[in-house]
Amino acid sequence: MNRLKYISIAAFFLVTSAALHGQSFTLDECIQLTLRNNESIKQSGLEVQKAEQTQKEAFTHYFPNVSATGLAMKANDYLVKGSIPEMNLPVYDGNPANLLNPTQFAYFPGASLNLLDYMNTASVVVTQPVFAGGQIYNGNRLARVGSEIVAERKNADTRDQLLITEKYYWTLAGLIAQRKTVSSYHELLISLRKDVAVAYENGLVEKSDLLKVDLKLNEVEVNSLALENGIESVQRALCQQTGMEWSAGIITVDSVGLVLPPENYYIDPDSSLKVRPEYIMLSKAIDAASLQKKIAVGKNLPAIAVGATGFWYDVMDNSQTNALAFASVSIPISDWWGGSHQIRQKSLDVEKAKSMLADNSQKLVMQQQVAFNKLREAWKRIKLADAAMTEATEHLKVVADNHKAGMVGVSDLLEAQALWQQGAQQMAGSGYNYLIELATYKSLSDIIANPKHE
């Protein structure tokens, strides 16, 4: 019974001797690997970088708009071609009376006209917006809010991915602990079979008793195979989550250790609500909708800009430069008809964002409270599993003593051993299930999980 007691206590701890050849990892190491290698977190980081570039691009709208244009043209032939025929041109002799009836002429031999076979031009235009209805200012604010929303989304995704990692870790640790209980149960059955085989050879028991033990051994071997498959599946999932290369010998180092009751981790949902990424994103969605409304209003206001342009041209052997300054006022008169409806749409978007914040705030509070209730249930299961294990251990001792005394048969002993094995698995599993529920609750109440666990 000392051996049984030792096994029941050891079920709470991770047993590394089952896979000494494999790689061992602490929870903190897996978390660091997730932060470094997880593809979802990497993608979130890229989205943050994109948002930052969008914000920088919006800031450039404060600067003048500068454009330059150049043109160089050379034709195969003149673009303007013509000729003036030969003629006698009247010559004015100074007498007004002879204007209508000239008496002197000058001979003009005629000429050909060939114009414009090349052209070179260049110009630079600088335009500075003076007033654009607040579109530039509010556009920059909107880009900044968008960047903040993306950053909070990354925080939420990082939190969720770390939670997945921790769940995989404790699930694997629990399965490895169950492997130990199954192995211990298998050793008990092997020992029992040897005793029953000797008793059968001596004619003390029926062959059916030996077959019952063999059937139970077969059942345990099948369950053991299913358990190993489950361990491999979780190992692969943990490798994919953390970016590790797959290794069949991956084991966990951290164990249940000492855990505190749920009340030690309780955080009032209302007090932690406003620091949750989901709440922050919903709040900033209201700011974004309000800024979009202001931009829609600005599109219907006059736009004022000033600027200057300088140009140079070289045409027909004539080169000149010039410059001018200008001011422009643009009034979107026709846009006013549809603009009022667009502004109303944006106002409705603001109201919708406020409604979503109110609705989802209640859901976030409920989500955190439900997680705490599950944590309390997991704690209760630990207590129940501990009591059940104590009863199963005592029951197995009594039945084992009675079997040795010949007062009960093999079936009763097998049943008692099965109850003990079931209790041992529940005892080990309840501890790791509590850690999983604790990790879930901490992620929702914005508490940084401590891999060591108090």
Q: How does this structure look, described?
A:
Mean pLDDT is 86; it is low at 1-21 and 448-454. The longest helix is centred in the last third of the chain and has 70 residues, at 335-404. The protein has a single domain (2-64, 133-304, 335-444), classed as Outer membrane efflux proteins (OEP) (Up-down Bundle). The protein has a four-stranded antiparallel sheet with strand order 2-7-9-10, with no helix packed on it. Strands 1-8 form a two-stranded parallel ribbon. Strands 3-6 form a two-stranded antiparallel ribbon. It is α+β, with helices and mostly antiparallel strands and 454 residues long. It contains nine helices and ten strands. The two termini are 31 Å apart. 61% of the residues lie in helices and 16% in strands.
What general outline do the C-alpha atoms trace?
elongated
Question: What's the number of extended β-strand segments?
Answer: 10
In CATH terms, what is the architecture? Up-down Bundle
Mean pLDDT: 86
- Point out poorly predicted stretches: 1-21, 448-454
Rg calculated over all Cα atoms: 44 Å
Q: If helices are DSSP runs of H or I spanning 4 or more residues, what is the number of helices?
A: 9
CATH topology grouping: Outer membrane efflux proteins (OEP)
Estimate nothing, just give the exact number of structural domains.
Answer: 1
Largest sheet: spatial strand order: 2-7-9-10
**Overall CATH class:** Mainly Alpha
Structural class: alpha+beta
As a percent range, the share of strand residues is 15-25%
